[in-house]
UniProtKB/TrEMBL annotation, chains A, B:
InterPro entries: Haem_Oase-like_multi-hlx, PqqC-like. This is Heme oxygenase-like protein. Pfam families: Haem_oxygenas_2 (PF14518). It comes from Streptomyces indiaensis. Keywords: Oxidoreductase. The lineage of its organism: Bacteria, Bacillati, Actinomycetota, Actinomycetes, Kitasatosporales.
């Protein structure tokens, strides 16, 4: 037993020299017994945690872009396991303890970075009654640079090309293909009208029981219609879109992040209609296949209702019941707004570089 | 930093002398900073894992009942965190890495014990086409001693008292109050008709959007009508019911247990109608408040439909797509049948001791 453990330890440590992401990729090929030994090897676990701390320090203290990519590559791999079906042949392959350790260190750094960007004054001093808080939060969202971002409301609305639409939809794969599962997770342990609001939103995502109306199916049709296949998405996917996707997953997966998640996804629902309006207009201007725009067209109306319900039945009552919840909800909203802005800024730059805006426009 | 870590280590180790459950209870009162130091203290983590191994060895190798109770008390505490809302004041309290380590060792022992009770011949040699597999599995369920258990089909049907009904409903709190969330978890990462089947089952649990029809609400009404309050439930709750509840949570929480979960909850759905028929008959024989039996009465019909859909749209297609899935599904079904039998055997003994069967019957 000791020999086996020692052997596994050496194995894990050898891979560790290649980095945190290399360790996670190596875990994919380990047998159930090897994984068990590695989980039980707390020398290896401590070394892996130290490597995670060193990685996040390079990413966030030193501003090392490659390290930042490794942080988010590692988190994307971990979340992909949480949100996807596992083959029956791997039912005894237990990677959770090691992955949870890694995720804990990386998530703390990612969220810590986002929280440091938010001025305390922007999340305190808010109204303490639910309805007034909701009005306040809506103003915070619309006043933020991400509230009416030029990518949607100028570039796409006025002269977005089909290449731009393809590039945008490729980035949206960071959230939309798992939004139903995110809602399913958010409602766990909640009660009453609050739970029902999220449940009904989930059921809408599932086409209200109509297979042809399932939103992930409609979103796939949009990708297909615009020619964004998996090779294209892999090639063109921006780090900033990956960061948004990772934070979405992080906040949904743990019960303790619920209040931040409620603010975060409240922003998503609230901004979707105005943003999707610009996507639909650009799509139709290019006379693209209507089948590909059903998803976005549908969400203009549906998400207006979802946002209204989210504010009325989730956010308002949470704040009325405990005003202390207002700060965490606002933090979540600000995290979404800031990361959305980063991502749209980068994407807009990329669109402008890829297809120069006609002079004189 | 080292001093702090060393200090926390000593703290954790002091508590560890009192057992695994004491450590988990102690975590409830730790500050966010203390929890962080304990998570990063791999000496403490290794000692805690060793304590978990020692505990499961006493429970399962030595047959120590107190140790078995501690194993399941610890798991119940961990799962309760996963299935319940966390206060906003604890959003920075990260206990997941430590709890996942503990759960991993305990779950392996609990599932290992159940798997050793299942003869390999009972889960292999099954048909390889979906529809034939379903027929085979239904026969396995009905032929098992839990398929027509005397608690329901003799004791309760013929002379179950209101005390018996109260005792039974108290045990059912191990699963029913979180069945909606279990379905929400099961459907994560699935697709097509399989995902829709579980989604529709979830939406049924949510009263199809009608607050008064939410099944957890109806179940609470049943508890209230029969006088099973939380103090009564705490006092009368059987270890065997806790084991069932823990295995239900374990199989639902991890993607890699999906196939076992599908077999496990397939049994639950398939047996509910015939079992609930007996509960409803006993309830009405005692002329109890009808409001309390809506839940069980409803499920006689609803779960017949759910079971049919579960077999047709989930189990059948999984086996047709990959016959290797059949073994894991059957293992899950057998785990449910065996633990259900244990629990019903113990409960029936308790009912008979509590209210002796009239002689001559």
């Amino acid at each position: 037993m000791y020999t086996a453990s020692h052997h596994s330890c050496t194995d894990g440590k050898n891979v560790l020299a290649e980095g945190v992401l290399a360790v996670l990729r190596d875990l994919e090929h380990r047998s159930a017994d090897e994984l068990l030994r590695m989980s039980d090897d707390y020398g290896f676990r401590a070394d892996l945690a130290a490597a995670c701390h060193a990685l996040t320090s390079r990413a966030y203290d030193d501003g090392d872009r490659a390290a930042l990519e490794e942080v988010h590559g590692a988190l994307a791999l971990i979340y992909d396991r949480e949100f996807s079906a596992r083959p029956v042949q791997e039912s005894d392959h237990e990677r959770e303890p090691i992955l949870r350790d890694v995720a804990a260190v990386l998530e703390r750094a990612v969220l810590g970075h986002e929280l440091r960007r938010i001025p305390e004054s922007s999340v305190t001093g808010h109204p303490e009654s639910g309805p007034e808080y909701v009005r306040w939060l809506k103003a915070v969202i619309s006043d933020h640079p991400a509230g009416w971002h030029p990518l949607y409301h100028r570039h796409l609305a006025e002269h977005g090309s089909t290449d731009d639409l393809r590039l945008l939809l490729a980035q949206e794969t960071s959230l939309d293909p798992r939004f139903d599962d995110i809602l399913a997770l958010l409602q766990i342990g909640r009660h009453g009208a609050e739970k029902m609001e999220i449940a009904a939103n989930y059921w809408d995502e599932m086409g209200n029981g109509e297979p042809a109306g399932v939103h992930t199916t409609l979103f796939s049709q949009a990708l297909e219609a615009i020619g964004a296949d998996s090779a294209y998405i892999r090639r063109e996917f921006l780090l900033e879109a990956g960061i948004s996707g990772n934070i979405s997953a992080c906040l949904a997966l743990s019960r303790r992040h619920y209040h931040k998640a409620v603010g975060y996804f409240g922003v998503t629902e609230y901004l979707a209609p105005r943003r999707f309006r610009c996507v639909v207009d650009a799509w139709r201007r290019h006379d693209l296949d209507e089948v590909g725009i059903v998803y976005h067209d549908l969400h203009i109306g549906v998400d207006a209702g979802h946002a209204a319900g989210w504010f009325k039945n989730v956010i308002g009552p949470l704040v009325s019941a405990d005003p202390a919840a207002g700060r965490d909800i606002a933090l979540g909203a600000m995290i979404r707004l800031n990361t959305s802005r980063d991502y749209l800024d980068t994407l807009l730059e990329r669109m402008r570089a890829g297809a120069p805006v006609p002079t004189g426009v």
